[in-house]
Design brief:
Elements (H helix, E strand, L loop, with lengths): L5 E4 L3 H12 L2 E2 L3 E2 L6 E6 L5 E6 L16 E5 L3 H13 L3 E8 L5 E6 L5 E5 L1
Parallel strand pairs: 1-5, 6-9
Antiparallel strand pairs: 2-4, 3-4, 4-5, 7-8, 8-9
């Protein structure tokens, strides 16, 4: 069994899509729009087969915060420590907040965490 995809609501669908295309080489599918509910969605595909569905609709609730319950971050493996360092620096230069700089965690991961689009936490790891 495997997770088929993860979905998340976003305020600015096009900006979220561009974030993942620019920094994580996502390949976006076509825009889906349900005119009855107002739902708009893109499926983003990543190397290795992972998929993320980004979506929005007229009525959404705000529940952000780094210590909220539920899904807290998306983690992307970039393949090397150099890749973690480089992508973290690119995101910093693009104006995103670095939550934690590249480091080896207590459980052995080399990672950084960045607040990406709409303050969603993105973990970058080997």
């Amino acid at each position: 069994m495997r997770i088929e995809h993860v979905a998340m609501y976003v305020e600015d669908l096009e900006a979220a899509k561009q974030f993942f295309v620019t920094f994580f080489q996502a390949i976006p599918g076509d825009l889906y729009h349900n005119p009855v509910t107002g739902l708009r969605t893109y499926f983003l595909s990543f190397e290795g087969g992972a998929r993320l569905e980004i979506m929005n609709r007229p009525e959404m609730e705000q529940a952000k915060g780094l210590k909220r319950t539920g899904l807290i971050h998306l983690a992307f493996s970039v393949g090397s420590k150099t890749g973690v360092d480089s992508l973290t620096e690119q995101l910093k230069e693009a104006g995103y907040t670095i939550v934690s700089s590249p480091r080896t965690t207590g459980d052995g991961y080399y990672e950084s965490c960045v607040l990406g689009f709409e303050d969603n936490q993105i973990e970058i790891t080997v």
